[in-house]
Design goal:
This protein is an alpha+beta fold. 35% of the residues lie in helices and 22% in strands.
């Protein structure tokens, strides 16, 4: 048999609490449930949203790095700075592709400019229109095959090569002046790390 412990009596001057009202009991339980849902539901919802964003980001990166040819859009600012390919605004039909290996990294870019934009681009590579040579296809057959560019089709092709000391990039530029108002520019910029 166990001995029972004595109970402490309530102080004589403290009034007894009345029994809990059912409405108050319901409100208290509802508030408790709401707090539990918020403490569990908000972090769980955040985790679901975060996981979806992370998965989408991974898919975008996978698509970017699994590309095997020109991708419509602008190269990143870092790529443009690294390969010294400044694409003036406004430009249309912009596409690029980057390859990297232990020996050489290349950025392939194409874009259509206005006359003023072509002059701006040529200035950015340290040249002007006088540096362009008619019918000089400076982009190699290998690089044409990688991108699918074909410079054998009729056109007014002009080319130049900007050579720089490693690790600065060397750029091969071909310009199609078939439409003199909106010339099309093709660039292969390669750098040796």
């Amino acid at each position: 048999m166990t001995a029972s412990l004595p109970r402490q009596a309530s102080p004589p001057d403290e009034p007894r609490r009345p029994p809990e009202d059912p409405r108050h009991k319901f409100r208290r339980r509802a508030l408790t449930l709401l707090i539990i849902v918020l403490l569990i539901g908000v972090p769980a919802g955040y985790l679901v949203i975060s996981a979806n964003q992370s998965r989408d980001s991974g898919k975008q990166k996978e698509d970017k790095y699994s590309a095997t040819g020109l991708t419509a859009g602008w190269p990143s600012k870092v790529q443009r700075r690294l390969y010294q390919v400044e694409i003036p605004h406004p430009a249309a039909k912009v596409a690029f592709y980057e390859t990297n290996n232990w020996k050489t990294s290349r950025l392939y870019a194409q874009f259509q400019l206005t006359n003023a934009g072509l002059d701006t681009f040529l200035t950015s590579v340290g040249a002007d229109r006088q540096a362009l040579t008619k019918d000089d296809i400076t982009i190699s057959a290998r690089d044409q095959k990688v991108t699918g560019w074909k410079f054998s089709v009729p056109g007014q092709w002009w080319g130049l090569t900007r050579k720089q000391k490693d690790p600065a990039p060397t750029q091969d530029v071909v310009v199609n002046l078939a439409d003199p108002t909106y010339p099309m520019v093709y660039v292969v910029s390669r750098t040796v790390p």
